Give the backbone structure.
Amino acid sequence: MRKTLLFSSLIVIFLSNAPVQAGILGEASNYNAFIFGDMNVWTTDSQGRIAAGGNIAMSNYSVGSHADPAAFSIIGGGNVNYFSGTVANGGIFSDNNVELQSYTVNGDVIANGSVTVLPPYGTVTGSTVGSAGFTNPINFSNSFNYLSSLSQGLASMQTNGTTTVTPWYAISLSGSDSVNYFNIDGSDFSNAVSLTFNMGIDDIAIVNISGTSDTFQNFGLVNADTRQGNILYNFYEADTVSISNIGVKGSVLAPYADVDFNWAHIDGSLIASSLTGTGELHQFQFDHNVPVAPEPVSSTLFILGGATLGLRRFWNKKRPEVNNALQKTQI
C-alpha cells in the first residue's frame, strides 16, 4: 500500500546554502556527480553530493557521508526514486516527485511534486514537504552552457606538456609548469595499459582526450595517488565514455557524454550528460583556476547568451528526456 505525504504548509528553507563555488568547474566542483540528464545508479555510494537535471534512480546506494549537512545531498530536476539507502547528510530536493522505500534521510525531503513512501518505510530526520513551490537551486541549462564552453576552451589551450605513447600503449605525461596541458588521442587512451604522471607534486594536469567514443578502463595510473585534486580529464568530443575496472585519480569533464560507470571508482567529480552503473565516487575536488582559451563566460553571466555553441550541440543530440529536463529548469 502506498502512503503519500503532501504538505501544503509553507516551510521556509534556504535552498541556496551550497558551499561556495570554487575554481573553473564552478558549482559542479561541489558535487561528486553533476549530470545534465538522467542518472541511474545502484549498489554503491557517493561520498559527496549528487545533482542531475533529469530523473534520478538509486537503489542500494548511499550518499553524502562527506557532504555538508547544511546543503541538499541529492538535487534532481526530474523525479527522484530512492530505494534502500542512506542519505548521511543534507537531504533531498526534487523539482518533480520523490518516491522513497527502505530509506534513511538525515535531512529534509522537499519536492515540488509529491512525496510518496513505500513499505518498508524508513526515517526522515527533517521536514517532508510536497507541492513545495521552490526554485531548484541549480539551473542545469545554464550550467551545461558554461561547462561545455569550458570543455572546449580547455581543449583549445596550447599544449605545454609532453605525451609519450609506446608501441604497447604505455602513456607518459611529462610537464614542468605549474599548469600542464596534455593531448591524448582517444584511440591511444582506449588502448592504454598504463598512464604515468611525471611532474611536480603540486602541479596541475589538464588531460584533453579526443574521440567521440572513449573508454577509461583496465589500466593502472602511476604517480597519481596524491594528485587527485590536481588532475582533470577532459573528454571534449565524447558522446559516450565507458569507465570500468579502474581507480580514476582526478575529476572527469565529459559534458556531452553518456557515461557507463561500472566496477570502478573516481576520486573527484564526474560531469556528464547521463550516468548509469555501479561506480563509486570519492570526495575530492578540482577547485583550481587555470587559463582557458577562449575564456568561458562567467558562471554568473552565461545566462546572457554566451557559449551557445555547446548547448546547441547538446540539444541536437535529440534526447527528449534530457532536453525536457534542461528546458524545465531554465530560468
